[in-house]
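Dear H.,

Thanks for agreeing to be a second pair of eyes. The structure we're designing against is below in token form, covering all 139 positions.
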């Protein structure tokens, strides 16, 4: 049995969410999931990675494609500082480390996180999700 290529894995990933496999989507999907590893990317870092391939796409296309992937449930957006967005291919609920010195976002061990209690949601609302980003700096 042959190992699937990055393009094949990307195409399957798109199909799992019912997304049409356009040339640009397949190219970006291959970069995101083509090796089977989870990724935390910014639009700019994915754009830079795409520039190293034969299938170049514009930065606007990268932004639009990441939004489509999030809307389809393939990725989740992690906002740091209210202005910097990272896009995560790992879809389960899990905390993140944000490394202030390098600007890198990595997964934090979920089994070590305990949230004992949340504040009551205001009347007429419910908690949809809790995002945990732990900011780190070198000592």
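And this is the sequence the design step returned. I haven't edited it by hand at all.
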């Amino acid at each position: 049995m042959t190992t699937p290529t990055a393009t094949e894995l990307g195409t399957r990933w798109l199909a799992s969410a019912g997304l049409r496999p356009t040339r640009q989507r397949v190219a970006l999907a291959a970069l995101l999931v083509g090796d089977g590893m989870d990724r935390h990317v910014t639009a700019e870092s994915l754009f830079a990675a795409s520039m190293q391939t034969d299938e170049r796409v514009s930065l606007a296309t990268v932004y639009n494609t990441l939004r489509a992937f999030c809307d389809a449930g393939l990725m989740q957006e992690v906002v740091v500082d209210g202005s910097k967005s990272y896009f995560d291919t790992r879809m389960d609920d899990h905390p993140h480390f944000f490394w202030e010195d390098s600007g890198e976002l990595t997964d934090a061990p979920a089994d070590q996180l305990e949230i004992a209690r949340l504040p009551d949601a205001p009347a007429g609302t419910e908690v949809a999700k809790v995002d945990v980003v732990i900011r780190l700096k070198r000592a």
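Two observations from my side: DSSP finds four helices and six strands in the chain. The longest helix spans residues 59-71.

Warmly,
E.
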